[in-house]
Design a protein that fits this description.
heterodimer; A: about 300 residues; mainly alpha; two-stranded antiparallel ribbon; 11 helices; about 70% helix; B: about 260 residues; alpha/beta; Rossmann fold; six-stranded mixed β-sheet; four-stranded antiparallel β-sheet; 10 strands; about 25% strand
């Protein structure tokens, strides 16, 4: 039982990070109706930024995250301004193609700046282990949980209670109405890319603390994609729940199923099997917004 | 206040929709823009509110002036910030937001919080049904309530000019009448200048001061609302009444003959 709870706990911590990354996905999807294929590449950049600040500059974790957030905001703004602004009003497919290009560019840029070697930031995080009863929470899980929780709560409060958050939710509903009321949609687009970039980068640092920084960190984007589909493509709350579900499933599967099969690797497949089954019964995802139809 | 000077509008550069449309709305007046489907009413509104660009349309000739300044060529956000608030056709509420959130979105451009609160109460006084449902998701309101919400949202911007696109579309006659009464109240109590686009000519001319009739992208008739109401053509084509004032029989309808005379 302890083993199971342990798996659930670390899985939930991992899931929160997935949820964080998936939120970036949802925000862009809601604002510009396009899948951001490059969301995972923000995570990859985050991993490398974490390496730069934590290992190369030897900064404490909090300072590293703050610096990385600043870099991420600039990156998000520049990317939106240069590559996506010209595509406003163009077909969604064009925007998706642009994000594919963006993914390649980010991957190339990361290799150019940091090189292709695997970067580990082992031993940089404070090494303490929190004990709750018989469960032990490793530091990277604890930090991951705290940081993603804080970020998610800040984002939710921002959307719920600030004027600009309301403007962003309104833009997600009807672009033309919002424009006719004087809300500058371009600023909303800019901010949505900045947020997506920030959550990706923060998630990247947190994951990098576990697995190190490498180009293949971008594959997390695929998991974020699965999270979004499971939660319902346009629901932030759904992304949070689905993220945690995916993290827990993955970890539990790794704990119980991997020893059964030679070679392991079932942990990576199992959550997707569950997602496929869920989507068969709930095509909108767990919390997807169906279009409101009045009868 | 608003002056549209002989504008031509074309979509995608080739489909000419408006040909030399001119109209003006005086300070504190209601102007009604009437016409059948496809006459160019909505396009005229879009030309004023700057929404043409998103529809691949453009003003190719003429100008639009608001308070003496040219506004054609400005984006919709800038024009809204100048004080022109549009309630678009088809009851476009922000479905997943609550009624109150919809209203706050309308007041987005304003920074005077206390006054916004005050206006919110004022709007609720005009539309008591919205007050009852302030916390509800607006997508689940009835059609009439949604139309009220769209007008209320436009009001929340404290505009100098309101553009209302077919507020009675798809509403039961009694509800439509209620909407028109409220529009008239807004005009009288708030001295609001309103450009009203309508198919329901009788109701629109009932509250308007001045009217324009459009057909095929042209303004074919204009005048004070009282005069238009008595105009034989308007009575016949838009109110379905014959010269004698009775219901017209289909037997002696010879629409297209007279229509041709009009356009020439």
């Amino acid at each position: 039982m302890t083993f199971f709870l342990q798996l659930v706990l670390t899985g939930a911590a991992l899931g929160m990070i997935y949820a964080l990354i998936a939120i970036g996905f949802v925000i862009i999807l809601k604002c510009s109706q396009a899948f951001n294929i490059a969301q995972g590449h923000f995570v990859m950049i985050g991993g490398y930024l974490g390496f730069t600040f934590l290992v190369m500059f030897n900064l404490p974790i909090w300072a590293s995250i703050v610096l990385a957030i600043i870099v991420a905001m600039i990156m998000g703004w520049v990317i939106e301004r240069l590559t996506l602004r010209p595509l406003v009003g163009q077909p969604e497919l064009a925007v998706i193609m642009m994000t594919i290009a963006l993914a390649s560019m980010l991957e190339g840029a990361a290799t150019l700046i940091w090189g292709a070697q695997y970067k580990t930031y082992h031993g940089v995080l404070p090494s303490f282990t929190l004990k709750v009863g018989e469960l032990s929470i490793p530091p990277e899980s604890l930090i991951g949980m705290i940081v993603s929780l804080i970020t998610i709560v800040i984002l939710l409060l921002f959307f719920r209670y600030t004027k600009f958050g309301l403007a962003m939710r309104a833009t997600a509903e009807d672009l033309k109405v919002v424009q006719s009321l004087g809300i500058k949609a371009t600023v909303v687009f800019s901010v949505s890319w900045m947020i997506a970039s920030v959550v990706g980068v923060v998630g990247g640092i947190l994951l990098g603390a576990v697995s190190g920084a490498m180009v293949s960190l971008a594959q997390i984007g695929l998991k974020a994609f699965a999270v979004v589909l499971l939660g319902g493509v346009n629901s932030i709350g759904g992304a949070i729940v689905a993220g945690i579900i995916l993290g827990v499933l993955e970890n539990v599967a790794a704990g119980y199923l991997d020893p059964l099969l030679p070679g392991g690797g079932l942990a990576n497949v199992f959550p997707f099997i569950v997602i496929i089954i869920v989507l068969i019964f709930r095509p909108y995802g767990l919390f997807g917004l169906a279009r409101i139809e009045r009868i | 206040m608003l002056q549209v000077n002989r504008i031509d509008v074309a979509y995608m550069g080739v489909i000419q929709v408006l040909r030399g449309v001119s109209l003006q709305v005086q300070d504190g007046a209601i102007a009604a823009l009437l016409g059948a489907n496809g006459a160019g009413k909505t396009t005229t509104l879009r030309a004023i509110s700057g929404m043409l660009k998103t529809e691949e349309g453009a003003i190719t000739d003429g100008s639009v002036e608001f308070d003496g300044k040219r506004i054609d060529g400005h984006g919709p956000e800038e024009i809204a910030a100048l004080g022109i608030s549009q309630a678009m056709e088809g009851r476009r509420v922000l479905e997943h937001l609550s009624v109150e959130e919809n209203l706050f979105v309308g007041a987005y451009c304003r920074n005077d919080r206390a006054l916004v609160r005050q206006d919110l109460e004022l709007v609720y006084d005009w539309f008591p049904k919205l007050r009852e449902r302030r916390r509800q998701t607006s997508g689940f309101l009835s059609g009439g309530e949604q139309q009220m919400l769209v007008i209320a949202r436009a009001l929340m911007a404290r505009p100098k000019l309101m553009l209302l696109d077919e507020p009675s579309l798809g509403l039961a006659p009694l509800l439509a009448q209620e909407i028109f009464e409220i529009i008239q109240r807004i005009n009288i109590e708030r001295k609001m200048t309103i450009l009203l686009v309508e198919q329901n000519a009788r109701a629109a001319l009932g509250i308007a001061h001045h009217g324009y009739v459009m057909e095929n992208g042209r303004v074919v008739l204009e005048g004070p609302a009282d005069k238009l109401k008595d105009n034989a053509d308007v009575r016949e084509f838009y109110m379905g009444l014959s010269a004698a004032g009775g219901q017209k029989s289909y037997r002696d309808v010879k629409h297209y003959h007279r229509r041709k005379k009009w356009i020439a």
